[in-house]
Amino acid sequence: VKRIIDDRRAMAAGEKPVDWGFAEHIAYASLIADGTNLRLVGQDSGRGTFSQRHSVLVDTQTGKTFTPLNNLGDSQAGFAVYNSLLAEVSVLGFEYGYNVENDKALFIWEAQYGDFANMAQVMFDQFISASRAKWGQKSGLVMLLPHAYEGQGPEHSSARLERYLQMAGENNWTVANLSSAANYFHILRRQAKMLGDETMRPLIIVSPKSLLRHPLVGADVNDLTTGQFETI
N or C terminus: fewer CB in 10 A for the chain? Predict the structure, then answer.
């Protein structure tokens, strides 16, 4: 963990490219500092499925925890991160319902692996993809679907992107497959900007494994402070 923190200091100083995990962390920090409440829930979300996040630090001697994003300043918004049970339909359903009632906060649900969304398929089919058309319910829920396509066997290898594309229609949600840390930063900021607005839509992100630390994915600090989300 110390090495990760030291690396992030170097990234912030422009001495190393900003990697995926730090781009995410900066996006969260900037939103919280600007007054957007943020909630992240999923299996092992505090650490990150592939050890890329570490939003909660644990003292191995005392067991006490420290969450840097809750220590940005007196005027910051709230940040909550919960490691949830392997009960995806319950957890995603709760987060979706909570988000419908509180559409000004950024809610993020993260699957342990992308294929774990199998256990929440009814939520995608009946609620998240279709609730605007059926009931006029609006949601800006973000769903992170990590996949490990670099050799985890038949399961844990695919987020099954095709199922979400098959359910896409009439601008009901956004499905994104990103290959740039800067683009990840900007799409999270873009999503938060739409909260509570008519343009708000759920966002599904197929999040990577090998790209988390790949040098070609890294961003310059200027890529974050300027520019915007880029499409192909």
Answer: C
